[in-house]
Amino acid sequence: MPELSNRITTLNNGGTDGWDVFYKARRRVAAGEKITELTIGEPDDKTDPEILEAMHQSAIGGHTGYAAVPGTPELREAVAKRVAAQSGVPTTSDNVLITPGAQAALFAAHLCACDAGDTALYIDPYYVTYPGSIRGAGAVPHAIVTAPENGFCPTAIQLSETPEASSLLINTPNNPTGTVYDANTLEAICGFVRDRDMWLISDEVYSTQVWEGAHISPRALPDMANRTLQIGSMSKSHAMTGSRVGWLIGPEEAIAHLADLAIVTTYGVPGYIQDAAVFALAQGKGLEDKHAKPFERRKNIAMRLLSGSKVIQVIPPMGAMYMMLDIRSTGLSGEEFAHRLLDERDIAVMPGESFGQAAAGHIRVAMTVDDQTFEQAISTLREFAESL
Ligand SMILES: Cc1ncc(COP(=O)(O)O)c(C=O)c1O
């Protein structure tokens, strides 16, 4: 085999991709064992049958050929209207690129903001694909390591101490911490990117899942619409992870170039998926709330079951579909705890270390199983932690 490119071999920076516990759980499930999986952000709800019917009708109706590469006019328009209504920022179809999920948008946004070798900032703890997405785009990832005592939010001092960079990637509501950035944090972030004349890449895939505070889109802050690449997705809001449909919102000129990038990479999103997304968005907030509610309910279950524990500190999630538990007082690392919980109690969670340095000594629990199974798993998790 000829030599592989550095670009492809360094995506994970020579380390693991942080998913060992997940793979181990999946192997045991494949072998027929009963494991409670609280690992990945896969909603237990399935895509609504009416959305699937809309997809079917579109496909049967012939929308199976190449679709408009930047997105169909109908979906771009529907997304523009939704983003304008949610954020109050005037947004037209020309500000919207439809992508195969938020992941493709994250990669495209870094290619748009960074030249090869530029530094791209991101916040630790982080969604696992962030550093690899930055490396894949040819940029150099630089983490801003937040502290649990600051609610895992970056401070103005931390931002001011970063090296020169082309972009800053943020994610609110946050995976893995469940933090929702408040106005003060967002003002500090926006002030920082304005002063340094940088791009802000704002991953807002959990914007419909907020239990405390409110989702503020940084694109709505003064002088931000022209320097923000906002990312959204149908994956979590409409339980459509497998449909691969999301978007990138940005200044018209950036979107025009990003459409050229789509031509040489994804060549767009299937038309029947886009039609299903138009149908889903037209169902409005009712459907989004229906998919969001189970996570809020389970968050309340876990808060009740873990209250008073001297071993597990809960970081109350304000949004998204995960909980971070501080298990440092067990004396185990997040990785050791997660492996032992799987080996000894058949429950799979993600080690905090998979999400960066700041989350070491924590575990992330995805609230993605039915209430009864979740309740049982949290009780067992507490019993296990307290037995150590
Ligand atoms: C913070 C965050 N961004 C992006 C994604 C990717 O979403 P999509 O399925 O739209 O590619 C995820 C998925 O878990 C996520 O948690």
UniProtKB/TrEMBL annotation:
GO biological process, one term: amino acid metabolic process
Pfam families: Aminotran_1_2
Alphabetical keyword list: Aminotransferase, Pyridoxal phosphate, Pyruvate, Transferase
GO terms assigned for molecular function: L-aspartate:2-oxoglutarate aminotransferase activity; pyridoxal phosphate binding
The Aminotransferase class I/classII large domain, residue ranges: 34-380
Classification via PROSITE patterns: AA_TRANSFER_CLASS_1
InterPro entries per UniProt: Aminotransferase_I/II_large, AspAT/PAT-like, NHTrfase_class1_PyrdxlP-BS, PyrdxlP-dep_Trfase, PyrdxlP-dep_Trfase_major
Cofactors: pyridoxal 5'-phosphate
Source taxon at top rank: Bacteria
Catalytic activity: L-aspartate + 2-oxoglutarate = oxaloacetate + L-glutamate
Protein EC: 2.6.1.-
Family listed: Belongs to the class-I pyridoxal-phosphate-dependent aminotransferase family.
Name by which UniProt lists this protein: Aminotransferase
Native species: Thalassococcus halodurans
Organism lineage: Bacteria, Pseudomonadati, Pseudomonadota, Alphaproteobacteria, Rhodobacterales
